[in-house]
């Protein structure tokens, strides 16, 4: 009798293990789709559940968990970006400390302006904060050029 129950038990365990893998793959697929359509909170939840399932079965540092952890990190990054956009207007009206510009300051060179324009050209800096920072850099550059022109005219 022991030999008869042994194979049936391992067969049942194998089918449960396959169900667990299928469930994790389904959750990971849902998370990837949610991330693709821009629903980061749902993506984080789905991929987190997939990671938990696979970590419980294979262990947290197993190779089977690498892909879900990667996608989980991407989902968390997108969620962080989305939440930081919500806080983008939090500093409106707060002086940034550059209102007291003096001639003694060493202003940023064109490299910062070039970086800001590259961000604008690629669309990477499309957040409110990015636009405000780029505008500040342009203003500083204009002030620098104006000062240089004034000094050249004096000489």
From TrEMBL:
GO biological process assignments: CENP-A containing chromatin assembly; DNA replication-dependent chromatin assembly
- At the top level, the lineage of the source is Eukaryota
Q: Which organism is it from?
A: Stichopus japonicus
Basic residues: bias regions: 133-146
Swiss-Prot/TrEMBL keywords: Repeat, TPR repeat
One GO MF term attached to the UniProt entry: histone binding
Polar residues biased stretches: 1-14
Q: Where is the composition biased (Basic and acidic residues)?
A: 112-121
Protein name per Swiss-Prot or TrEMBL: Uncharacterized protein
Q: Does the entry feature the keyword Protein biosynthesis, yes or no?
A: no
Question: What GO CC terms are in its UniProt record?
Answer: nucleoplasm
Asked if the keyword Cytoplasm belongs to this entry, the reply reads no
């Amino acid at each position: 009798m022991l030999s008869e129950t042994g194979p049936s038990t391992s067969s049942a365990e194998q089918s449960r293990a396959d169900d667990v893998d299928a469930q994790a793959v389904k959750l990971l697929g849902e998370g990837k789709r949610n991330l693709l359509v821009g629903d980061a909170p749902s993506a984080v939840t789905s991929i987190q559940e997939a990671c938990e399932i696979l970590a419980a079965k294979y262990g947290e540092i197993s190779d089977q968990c690498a892909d879900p952890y990667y996608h989980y990190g991407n989902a968390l990054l997108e969620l962080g970006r989305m939440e930081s956009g919500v806080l983008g207007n939090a500093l409106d009206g707060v002086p940034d400390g550059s209102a007291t510009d003096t001639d003694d300051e060493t202003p940023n060179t064109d490299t910062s302006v070039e970086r800001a324009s590259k961000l604008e050209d690629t669309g990477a800096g499309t957040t409110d904060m990015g636009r405000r920072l780029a505008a500040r850099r342009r203003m500083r550059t204009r002030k620098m050029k104006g000062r240089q022109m004034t000094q050249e005219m004096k000489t």
